[in-house]
Design brief:
252 residues; mainly beta; UDP N-Acetylglucosamine Acyltransferase, domain 1; 2 domains; twelve-stranded mixed sheet; ten-stranded parallel sheet
């Protein structure tokens, strides 16, 4: 095998590492982990116990900073933290300064940027991009090709369907004024967003609100209401049997 494992790294018992992997200095790999082929683990990365990392993923990558970027900052970042029993798919990129809770699944081709925290038992689907300075709660589902813009907050038990897009810049990249107003989206506990919806900058999706498929949300939405359309307007109440408080798993 042609692995490059730094002598200062700490690797727990019963760890399996594939071929052509790089493990940087002071990296920690917990007991029982399975590391695929061609995986790059950057210096200082801390991987918990029983974590699976599939082929060609990159853990602990340093962010790039373009000369004219509005949100990427020069800063000292803490090491990447991956909680126990996480599953990291193929060709995933997790940046330094990101922290995943326990039993998080990050599917193939996804990216999680720096200054991001993801809670326990959350599923990040295939091709999802979570930009920097975001918080994602526990027991969330972000399905295939979701784009979560920088400075967003997603609370617990949120469901975001495939191809949902969010934005944080009402000035669409023009004028100096925009730098004063960057704001991501907020999805309150139990909020659900249907496939292909668009959430405009700074908008809040209410707790247990349902945004219907294909909607464009241009203003904050109330709790426990279905909104639909372009622009999204109140449609009717969320059926009581769908409310978070009436789900058996919420009481566990």
């Amino acid at each position: 095998m042609s692995n490059k494992i730094d002598k200062s790294s700490r690797i727990g018992g019963n760890v399996k590492i594939g071929e052509y992997c790089v493990v940087g200095e002071d990296a920690v790999i917990g007991e029982g982990c399975v590391i695929g082929n061609g995986v790059i683990i950057h210096p200082g990365t801390n991987i918990g116990a029983n974590v699976r990392v599939d082929d060609h993923s990159v853990l602990g990558k340093l962010p790039m900073k373009a000369a004219n970027t509005a949100v990427t900052k020069d800063q000292e970042l803490p090491p990447l933290e991956v909680g126990d029993s996480c599953i990291i798919g193929t060709s995933v990129v997790l940046y330094r300064g990101c922290a995943l809770g326990e039993k998080v699944l990050v599917a193939d081709l996804s990216t999680v940027r720096e200054n991001v925290k993801v809670g326990d038992f959350t599923i990040i689907g295939r091709g999802v991009a979570i930009e920097n300075f975001c918080e994602v709660g526990s027991y969330c589902k972000l399905e295939t090709n979701v784009y979560l813009t920088a400075y967003s907050i997603v609370e617990d038990r949120v469901f975001i369907a495939p191809c949902v897009a969010t934005s944080n810049d009402n000035f669409v990249g023009r004028t100096e004024e925009r730098f004063k107003h960057f704001k991501g989206v907020t999805v309150k506990k139990g909020g659900r967003i249907g496939v292909g919806s668009v959430i405009l900058p700074g908008k809040t999706i209410g707790a247990d609100c349902l945004v219907a498929a294909g909607s464009v949300v241009t203003s904050d939405t109330p709790d426990k209401i279905i909104v639909a359309g372009v622009p999204a307007k109140q449609f009717r109440d969320v059926p009581s049997e769908q409310l978070l408080e009436n789900q058996n798993w919420e009481k566990k």
